[in-house]
Amino acid sequence: MKDNGISDKIKGNVNKAKGEIKDQIGNATDNKSLQAEGKLDKAKGHIQETAGKLKDGK
Asked: Which string of DSSP letters, residue by residue, matches 1-58?
């Protein structure tokens, strides 16, 4: 069965949410390393979500 990119979209959204939380906590605590890690997670999430959309053809 073909997943049509659904798993990539889900993983992408999870990574974007996780990244946003890390970014905000890093910002609140002035932890530049955590902020950078959050931004990286968000970027990874965007890429995964885009891959899922491409598999879907949307």
From this structure: ---TTHHHHHHHHHHHHHHHHHHHHHHHTT-HHHHHHHHHHHHHHHHHHHHHHHHHT-
- CA dist 41 and 13 (Å) reads 10
pLDDT tier, 2 (very low <50, low <70, confident <90, very high otherwise): low
Give pLDDT tens digits for 5-43. 899 999 999 999 999 999 999 999 999 999 999 999 999
Q: Which two tokens stand for residue 7?
A: 């798993």
Contact in structure between 40 and 15 (CB atoms under 8 Å): no
Distance CA 57, CA 5 (A): 9
